[in-house]
Amino acid sequence: MAAGVDVGPVRQITVVVGRAGGGKWHVPAKASGWRSHCRYAEHLPGSPLALLDVCEQVCRHCARVVSVEPGEEALWRAAAEVVVADGRVRRLEEQEAGPRSWEGYAGVLWEAARHHDADVRGRLEP
């Protein structure tokens, strides 16, 4: 995220996960075998950890059942949108100013979150 952004509230979002050994994190499951969301999560003990610390290491089967409080989920989704928007702006800034084309123009419009961004509109003016 951008410098100067307080990520303290995002770091306070916790999820209960566990792992056997040093592999991926799993959301503990009470169901057995095929009823569980993940075969490695069955009867796995879990403990609360910061979602920000483990989010990229959660198994793909368990990622869909990660549960956080509704208010925290809204904060998490907003933070994710900020990260996506920051990536868009960085890609636009890294593009060379070379010759303009209709294809390039269309690409910039697509990346501009439906051209509501004032910086992008400013770049399209010249």
Strand residue content = 5-15%
Low-confidence stretches: none
The gross shape turns out to be elongated
Rg estimate, integer Å: 20 Å
Q: Quickly give the structural class.
A: mainly alpha
Mean pLDDT: 79
Q: How much helicity do the residues have?
A: 40-55%
The largest beta-sheet arranges its strands as 1-2
What order do the SSEs take from the amino end to the carboxyl end, as H and E?
A: HEEHHHHH
Number of helices: 6
The first-to-last residue Cα distance is 29 Å
Query: How many β-strand stretches?
Result: 2
Quaternary organisation: single chain
**Main sheet record:** 2 strands, antiparallel
Brief write-up:
The protein has 126 residues and is mainly alpha-helical. Helices cover 43% and strands 6% of the residues. It has six helices and two strands, in the order αββααααα.
